[in-house]
Amino acid sequence: MATPEDITIGNLNGNWVMNKGLSGETDPILKLQGVPWLLRKAMAAVTLYVNITTYETPRPESREPVTNIDFNQTASGKLGGTTEKRTLSWEIKEHKDYIFGEVQGRSEFVHGSPDSSGHIRPEFELNTEVDNAQEVKRFLRGENRLDSPDGAGFICEGSEGAWVHTFERSVSSGWTAEQVGYPDDPLLIPQRWVKFIFLTVELTRFWAQIWGFELIDNKRHFTRRIVVANAGGRYLCLRLVFDYEQPK
């Protein structure tokens, strides 16, 4: 179903399912990330479910609250699940699972800015090194269509909007990822955005994402715009679309 208006990236609590019909093709990007063929085929055959929990914990040094977002992903069939734990404190965090191997990263909030037509887009520094960096950033900001031909990109909710930006690099398989997505109520997180950055040494691949909300067939959907690049500058773009599952 469409995402209710009271669900935001700062409050993504609930259950979600990836909409394969509206999402782009995942196999090419998984291949670029070094995921084995058999595992890619198994992932293509299942439905992905995500339970998201958002909560706050105190910073050790100041006791000020910091946002945490946990993703617990499961799949139909016998494919194993994975868990992502993101702390939005700009501290480097490590993560490891059987799909992507070892990953390191950090996160923070970022601002939005108007494009040439005055539409507010997520503003962030592109950390991924690619051949066509301007085109990649335009895709992540929702300014061009590429893998999402149905609309004008992210919805700007509030006067300046809010999104989540993540940047990840693989330790074991050598890819890097960058993302931006939509954070929560601007009254709760004024003038800030979320940015995730995963850092490591001897890197050969990058993965960038922007998370937000888009209108697709006149329905509000949570989306993740993704760019994966290798050390040679080759990159692929993808948009994942998620349906919100009404609590039973």
Description:
- By secondary structure, the chain is mainly beta.
- It has one domain: Lipocalin (Beta Barrel), CATH 2.40.128.
- The protein contains three helices and 14 strands.
- Strands 1, 2, 3, 4, 5, 6, 9, 10, 11, 12, 13 and 14 form a twelve-stranded mixed sheet that branches. It has a two-stranded antiparallel ribbon with strand order 7-8.
- The longest helix is centred in the middle third of the chain and has 9 residues, at 133-141.
- Residues 183-203 have low confidence and may be disordered.
Look up the CATH topology. Lipocalin
Mean pLDDT: 82
- Measured as a percent range, the helix fraction is under 10%
CATH homologous superfamily label = Calycin beta-barrel core domain
Percent range for β-strand residues? 35-45%
Low-confidence regions:
183-203
Global Rg: 17 Å
| Main sheet makeup | 12 strands, mixed
Q: What letter string, H or E per element, gives the SSE order? A: EHHEEEEEEEHEEEEEE
Primary descriptors:
two-stranded antiparallel sheet, Lipocalin, 12-stranded mixed beta sheet, 248 residues, Pericyclase_pydY-like, 9% helix, mainly beta, 14 strands, 3 helices
